[in-house]
Hints:
Elements: H1 24-45, H2 47-55, H3 77-86, E1 101-106, E2 116-120, H4 121-137, E3 145-148, H5 160-169, E4 172-174, H6 182-192, E5 196-199, H7 201-215, E6 226-229, H8 238-248, E7 251-258, E8 262-268, E9 275-277, E10 283-288, E11 295-296, E12 303-310, E13 321-332, E14 341-348, E15 353-355, E16 358-360, H9 362-370, E17 380-383, E18 390-391, E19 395-400, H10 410-425, E20 429-434, E21 450-451
Amino acid sequence: MSTTSDLETTAHPPTFNLVERLPWAEVMALQNQRLAGQMAYLEKNSPFYRRKLAEVGLRFDAIRGQEDLARVPFTAKQELRDSLKAAAPLGLHRAAPMRDIVQIQASSGTTGSPSYVGLTAQDRESWTEITARALYASGIRSGDIVLHAFSMSKGFVGGIPIYQGVSHIGAIDLPIGADGGIDRLLIAARDTRPRCIVGTPNFLLYLGHTAPSVIGMQAHALGVEHLIVGGEPGGGIPAIRDELECVWGARCCEVMGGTDLGCTYWAEDEEQRGMYFVGPDYILAELIDPGSGRVLSWQEGATGELVYTSLARQASPVLRFRSGDHVRVTAIGSAKGRTAPAIRCFGRTDDMLIVRGVNLFPSAVQDLISSMKPAIGGVVRVLADFEGHSTQGNLKLLVERAPGQSSDTDAAVAQMVETRVRNALAVKAEVTLVEHGFFDAPGAQKVALTLRQAPDLMMRGKSKPNQA
């Protein structure tokens, strides 16, 4: 199903695949063609979507192009959770026979049980192609050694699918994984001198800061040129990105995806203007107003929620799936000839809190706190010790002190942070300072910015909890 790769004709082209540089009108025509094919496939193979469309009196053949999609009901994440629970392991929305499934991937399960997604051989080929496009955009080239610092366990898409994408480019994946531990990763970086490292931003930052104590070298002396980060907020936060690039002496680019659609299908290139959509021939992306559901135009500066429709997907297709990702459009096209929109993700519906009527994403808090170093340590957790996502109380923040900072200054520092939060985010905060290193160092799991209850020992002297 893939269009011709640029690599067949050029050693180092600006994009991995020609479709990334097609005029957008041609891309839309290709999407409409594949959308029609996907609708016919769903009508034949998906009782789940036959029921959904029948409930609103909509025929599959009435969806002839993108202008018709607004008539199709959204698919919510909870619907997929219910589907998986009703018919394990791949749910009622599985649209290919189990005998055709060749790979199953799992989400991280941060908001409940993991979601399992099946791939046929064709689906796996599509995933691998899109992942390769994203990693290529962010700097990986044929022959590169790539240190794999995403988790390689639990079926996460940062594991085997990233490996498959790296291999598809023709690069060499060194699959240590975050699960292999800090020492093994840094020793591998010292011994193999990878050109690129892939991993979550907070973990790679911790890895870089730890290098001198583990291998006796500064991270920037290892010769890494590209950091490709994703899986959690941080890569798009200026303060964290700047620190990553300083510690490693490397360019940092962000990628984004989601288990229900693919491994990664948004990717930043060397211009660092945002993450470009790299899989428009396999996934149709819409931008909607999250409140009304109205479709918005792709234009620079627009904000909204991403909605996805699979194109040419067999095993676990989704139709108008609400991702919950809230984004800002940062560019349309690039100097390298890309024609797709680029975005930054500033929060997820599942993470959003409403504090005294103000919508607030924890990633915005992290962005602000990270920018306040070295007055504070830069590590923060939002303590949401209330039912649901709304509170009439103040925003409770647990903020690590700067290294070596005494508790004697806590009152003044807390007041400074509270003032900055009020001025920048329009909410009143209650800040509690904890010692530097209070929270677990980043590792194989994503960093959780929100805590639903205070750490056990925090109220007794604000010391570091037992992390055994």
